[in-house]
Amino acid sequence: MKKTLAFLLALVLCMGTLPVLAEVPALKGPGNTIIKSMYQNVAFDPNTDLSAQLIEESTGYQAEYFMLPAENADEKLAMEATSGADYDIIRCSVNQFNMLRSAGALMPLNELLEAYGPDILAGYTQETWDAVSDADGVIYGIPYKYASDNEVASFLCCRWDLMQAAGITELPTTLDEFYNCLTTLKNYYGDEYIILTGPFLPTTEKNENWKFPKVIASAFGIWNEWMVDEQGNVIYMTEHPNFEAMLNYMTKLYDEGLLDPDWAVNTNDSVNEKFSSGKAIITSSSRSGANVTSPAIIANLGITYDDLAYISPLKGEDGTCTYMVTEALSSVSVILRNCDNAADVIHWCNLKVQDQLFLNFGVEGVHFTRDENGVMEPINPIFSDERGNSYWYCNAMDMAAYQKDWPARIRKSAGQYHAWENVTMKAQNETPEIFVDNPFKFMPAYDNYSKYNTGLHTLLSDFIVQVITGAKTIADIETFQKDWKAGMGEEVRSDLQEYIDQK
């Protein structure tokens, strides 16, 4: 990652400053260009999926779809962007957006959106646009918000049948109960199973995930890498008074054989495989993870959804439980500065917004119905079969309309909905007080933050895993702090503090 960032930063020197477009290019129009789109990795072929065909029929534009690799996507994207790649639009993570913007690799979009994207501009609030703009209001990407503002995006999925067989009658809700649960399983099953595997890193969360279960961090009052204390001061996670206690807790689990010994090297695929094949009793997961593992484990082992359960954010000894709201950007669609099809790309995205109900949800009476309150209910299996992957193709939204109908997408998959119902809906209904606002959720793209925060994130994630697995100890925090400062940590803090002070 450090090499990637160095490469990108060197690129800045070569590129110079990109001015706002002096002249808006004309449309070439459908039939005169093929739009090359790069998105995140998925398990299906995006070029043969029905959604690709529907978008072509709706917009008139042909498109070719490409994917970033599942692993080392940041490095791949950096190389593509700096080597003159001819992708017309890239839907990237927030971290990737910040890297590309800081490298001067992105085209400003203000005039293009005004000319060819009026529905895109109208689809988001001003604060959402601020999050993809610089201090001068220059827009460098099309935002894509999380569809749910209060979601428990990371949780633990459990083999409830095995837990009950070991004598466990209730799911743990506190740190102590969780530890006792794991030790009970270890004492009962010995080495027959991995007790807790992970970490699972959802694509949409990579920029906030620290290779650490957030359901455990919640019990220590730690909900983000960057936080604001009661005095309004921006602090880093390692400065939180409970950081050492949090790592000590996880280290104890690892030392006692309660964590997967492969915790440091696991990938999403290996975590999913260990749980869905029956090797692990508990796994860190998310909606996307449950969408894969739950149907797989039911098919592989012949169990039912009654045999699965979920552990939500845990409480500390003093009752502390905090979980950051998901109201923020999940991705950003960008156009590289060397693109010569930018006008048509924006026009294409705008046409998709105009037809978003059909493209994303289908036809009322065929793919979905609405109840007396207008709430959308999917008609399965046709909704799942014909609109199940449509989310992947989204670049822009009428966000208010999409958020209203989006819950129907949760219901397309039994595995996904089972997790959603038992984790997020339960938290929203029973413990809404756990959700903590993210004060940086729509922060503009400050230069230092854009350039250096990804490196700080990697430094933090590596340190956490190294301490948990014994490669380092908490005493090495002093060395970490030196590396953090060398990685421009204080400069990033200055950006964040400036933003907080101006709010």
3D architecture notes:
The protein is of the alpha/beta class. The chain is 44% helix and 12% strand. The protein contains 23 helices and 15 strands. It has helices at 2-15, 50-59, 73-82, 94-102, 110-116, 118-122, 126-130, 160-165, 175-189, 214-217, 243-255, 268-276, 287-301, 342-354, 356-361, 382-387, 399-405, 407-410, 414-422, 424-430, 447-468, 477-486, 489-502, and strands at 34-39, 62-67, 89-92, 142-145, 155-159, 194-197, 226-228, 234-236, 280-285, 308-311, 323-324, 329-334, 368-370, 376-378, 435-436. Strands 2-1-3-12-4 form a five-stranded mixed beta sheet. Strands 6-9-5-10 form a four-stranded mixed beta sheet, sandwiched between helices. A two-stranded antiparallel sheet has the order 7-8. The radius of gyration is 23 Å and the shape is globular. Residues 1-20 have low confidence and may be disordered.
